[in-house]
Specification:
Elements (H helix, E strand, L loop, with lengths): L3 E6 L3 H12 L4 E4 L14 E2 L1 H10 L2 H5 L11 E4 L6 E5 L25 E2 L2 H13 L4 E4 L2 E8 L4 E7 L5 E11 L6 H6 L3 E16 L14 E5 L4 E6 L5 E7 L12 H9 L8 E5 L2 E8 L3 E2 L2 E3 L5 E3 L6 H20 L9 H29 L11 H22 L2 H5 L45 H4 L4 E5 L7 H10 L3 E5 L13 E4 L5 E5 L6 H8 L5
Parallel strand pairs: 1-2, 1-10, 2-7, 4-12, 10-18, 20-21
Antiparallel strand pairs: 3-6, 4-5, 8-9, 9-10, 11-14, 11-15, 11-16, 12-13, 13-14, 16-19, 17-18, 20-22, 22-23
Helix pairs in contact: 1-4, 1-7, 7-8, 8-9, 12-13
Length: about 550
């Protein structure tokens, strides 16, 4: 007898989004978290990717998330300068949230989605997710609770829940256990999974500060992120509230191996470009290592890991948390399909088969970008701050290179939308090659395994808003008879919505009169007519055919 269908360990953004999505799909969930209910998270994540915003739109919280964070008119630009208060070298324009849906000129505009990305720190995002999750009747959150003594078996897991206030311990049994509990994951250790890869790529002395007078000392317009580039120090300064709170990354130099051995105050002042008279307060120290580590497995029987529990990499392209939420959305529909009775347990094999390869590829994108940035930071010309022509030339060249390298991570449509699954047991491939997956560029495609392309329907509605919660059959020619596929879905209990679409203008849909989209908006199958055995197709996509 189990006490919970699903136990999620960790109530960060990944665990909370997973819980919300499972509850949205009709599954009862328990979430265990060591922190108190109102305890603020660390100011880590600064960016919600477009794919994550699409998820939040489906779950009904996108508008609330978008209305939080920086002031509505605060630029989300990236500015590169000799210091925070120094001369500007380059600027990557990114719309503020007020202009996000109207601005069309810039590298971060015209996203092929109803929900473009949003810059917001985790300290504002997480409370929104928590309150939404706590309001769901299918979700039970137990705070100030540690998960211990994890036992994973074939069809259930058992854990001890320790109340950190009273010390009381009770055992809980669950059908499925999911570790969203970060780099030191208790669940990963219980699974016997190990992180492998590149242990340390870089060290970053990061400091969360309150500096009310800093914003008025700039020579240039406000920016969400400001890169400081000079021969003495390189760093990034992120605006947290658009007024007085800032997160300052000091990229430590080769040979600097101990965070506290490097003069934090001197480095901060160099990056900010302020003297000894400038006043600021340290709110917290957020030092971190840049790594590329991936667990050698994401599943052991009824236990799974997602997010930082499964993979850690340098946070370039702002995709750490977002990759974890992508894990969660992949796993959520698979678990719900099985728990709701229309898919066998074998469907769960798709989680690791799909997420591990793409995780490895994304981690290499991030590492490659980090290495390019490390090389750039190590080659800052001495004359970059000089007033003469040599200084002007140096600033122009450094600015050009900084823009060229970093526009790829701050305007990364490819990373967001180009993800495809090419070795899944539950996708009916047709032999067509997938478009190349890169960080910056994206080619919409209905090749099975790709994200179902977005398009606007007549009247300005998003195709995603019209799709069903589970499988959706997009029909672009109403003359094609699909009754046999609908009957097969009914026979197997698979929820299937038929969505009629007028002939689209986008080339992404050309050549396929039928596209079967999965619950996670990836293409499961396509064709101009139904296959000869529709029941076999339904069994394939629900994991009933080995």
């Amino acid at each position: 007898m189990t006490d919970s269908d699903v136990l999620i360990v960790g109530a960060g953004p990944v665990g909370l989004t997973l819980a919300i999505d499972l509850a949205w799909r009709g599954i009862n969930v328990t979430v265990a978290e060591t922190r108190a209910r109102a305890a603020p998270p660390e100011p880590k994540c600064n960016h919600v990717a477009a794919r994550t915003m699409e998820t939040f739109r489906r779950l009904g919280i996108a508008e609330q998330v978008r209305n939080a964070g920086l002031p509505a008119d605060y630029p989300h630009d990236i500015s590169y300068r000799t210091s925070f208060t120094g001369r500007e070298l380059a600027r990557i324009p990114i719309p503020c949230r007020r202009d996000r849906f109207t601005m069309t000129d810039g590298p971060d505009c015209n996203w092929p989605t109803p929900e473009p990305p949003h810059r917001i720190n985790q300290i504002f995002l997480e409370p929104i997710l928590f309150e939404h999750a706590a309001a769901q009747p299918r979700i039970r959150i137990v705070n100030r609770t540690s998960v211990e003594d994890v036992v994973v078996e074939d069809t259930s897991a058992t854990v001890s829940l320790r109340d950190l206030e009273t010390g009381t311990v009770k055992r809980l049994s669950c059908r499925f256990l999911i570790g969203c509990d970060g780099a030191r994951s208790v669940v990963r250790k219980a699974m016997g999974a190990e992180l492998t890869g590149d242990a340390i790529i870089q060290r970053v002395q990061s400091t969360y500060i309150r500096a009310p007078g800093l914003i008025d000392r700039q020579q240039s317009a406000n920016a969400w992120g400001t890169g400081a580039i000079n021969p003495r120090r390189s760093g990034m300064v992120y605006a947290i509230d658009g007024r007085e709170r800032w997160l300052v990354h000091n990229y430590m130099k080769p040979g600097e191996t101990e965070f506290e051995a490097v003069d934090r105050d001197a480095c901060l002042r160099t990056i900010l470009g302020v003297g000894a008279d400038f006043k600021y307060d340290i709110i917290s120290k957020e030092d971190w290592y840049g790594r590329r580590l991936i667990a050698n497995k994401f599943r052991d029987r009824c236990a799974f890991i997602a997010g930082d529990a499964a993979h850690i990499w340098v946070p370039y392209a702002g995709y750490g948390m977002n990759a974890g939420i992508a894990d969660a959305m992949n796993l959520s529909w698979l678990l719900a399909a099985h728990l709701n009775g229309w898919a066998p347990a074998s469907i769960l094999d798709a989680y690791e088969a799909e997420r591990w390869p793409i995780t490895s590829q994304v981690s290499r994108f991030a590492m490659s970008h980090a290495e390019a940035e490390i090389r750039r930071r190590g080659a800052v010309p001495d004359e970059i701050e000089d007033a003469g022509s040599a200084g002007e030339l140096a600033r122009a060249e450094v600015g050009r290179l900084a823009y060229e390298i970093n526009v790829q991570q701050y305007a990364c449509a490819g990373l967001n939308f180009g993800t495809y699954y090419d070795r899944s047991p539950i996708i009916a491939y047709d032999g067509t090659e997938h478009p190349a997956y890169t960080m910056s560029s994206y080619t919409p495609s209905t090749v099975p395994g790709c994200r179902t392309p977005h398009l606007w329907r007549e009247g300005g509605a998003s195709i995603y808003d019209a799709m069903g919660p589970e499988f959706t059959l997009l029909r672009f020619d109403s003359a094609v008879d699909v009754t046999a596929l609908q009957a097969a879905a009914r026979e197997r209990g698979v929820p299937l919505k038929l969505l009629e679409i007028a002939e689209p203008e986008t080339a992404a849909f050309n050549g396929s009169k039928l596209v079967l989209s999965r619950p996670d908006q990836h293409v499961a199958w396509r064709g101009d007519k139904l296959p000869s055995d529709p029941l076999a197709l339904i069994d394939h996509v629900r994991g009933a055919i080995n």
